[in-house]
Amino acid sequence: MIYLNLLLVFIFIVFIHEFGHYLFARIFKAEVTDFSIGFGKPLFKFTDKNNTVWKISPIPLGGYVKIKGLDFVFQKNENNEPGSFQSLKLYQKIFILLAGSFFNILSAWIALFCIFFFFGIASFAPIIGKVLDNSPAQENDLRVNDVIISVNNNEIYEFNDIPKALGNSEYINLLIERNNQIIEKSFQLNFNEEIKRYVIGIASNSDPIIDKFNLYQSIQNSLLFIPTYYYASISFLKQSYRDNTLGEQLAGPVGIVKMADQMMLDKIRGVIFLFIVISLFVGVFNLLPIPILDGGNIVYFIISKIFANSLPELVTRIYIVTGLTIISFLFIFVTFNDIFYK
Questions:
Q1: Which domains does the chain have, with CATH numbers?
Q2: Are 284 and 230 contacting, i.e. CB atoms less than 8 angstroms apart?
C-alpha cells in the first residue's frame, strides 16, 4: 500500500503539471495532439473530441503535452499555421510554460490549506512547560507553569509568538504571571551556535490546542508555509554545501522509494505532506533557467524574440545539447547517489 500511494503521488503531480500546460494551450487556441502521463509504449489511451490523444505509459518518471508544431520549435521551420505553437505570441508561450509550475505550487497550497482547515492548526499556550538546565531562564528564576504575557513590550498570545517577539535581540524584557501575580524580568540571553540565534532556555507544555475549520488562519498559514519552505530549503542546501554533505542529502526517485517506509505513506497526512513537498520542488525546479526545462525554454524564446527569431542554428544546437547534458548528469548523479549511498 505504501508503494502504491507513492506511485499515485508521482502520477498525480505529473498530471497536475502537464494539465497546467494543456489548459493554457487550449485557452490560447493551440492544438494539443498528445497528453501523456509517463513514457514508453502506452498502456492505455483514448482520443477526445478535440483530437487530443490521452495516454498512460509504464515509466512514471514524468510526462509531456505535445502541442502542434512543438516538435519543430527549435528548428528553422516557420510553421505559423493556426493552432501551432509557433503561431502563438511570446507572452502566450511564456504563460503556457509557466502554467505547469504554477499548477504544482497552486495544488500544494490547496493541499496545505486542507491540512490546516480540516486537521487543524496546532498551537501551544504561552505557558512554560520546561526550563532547560544552565540556561538564562533557569539562572533568572523562570519556572514551569509561568505564563508569558509579553516579550520586549510585544503581547504574547501563543508560545510561537515568543521567538517572533524576541527577534535577534540579545536582551529580553519579560512580563510573566505566576500565582496571580505579575512579575517583570530582564536579562541577557545566550547565543546558540546551532540555530544561530539567542535563546531563553524554555519549552512549551506538551498539550497543543487544535484549532479546526479556521478559514482565516488556514489561508494565512498555508500562504506563509510556501516561502518559508523555500527559504528553509535554500538555507539547508547552503549549509550542506558548506559541510560537504550535499551528496548525502540529495534524493531522487530511487531514494524516495527506498525511504518510503519512513514517510508514513500508509496515513493520509503522510501522503498529502509528500505530495506538497514534491509539488513545491517540481514547481521551482522546472523554472530554473536550464535548457530544455520550462524556465530554460522561456529564456530561449525571449532571446530568440530579441533576435527576430533568427538565432543561428549552431546556438540552438548548443542550447539543446547543453540542456540534455545537464539533465542527464543530474539524473545519473542523483540515481547513483540513491543506489549506493542511501
A1: 2-120+251-341 (no CATH), 123-211 (2.30.42.10)
A2: yes
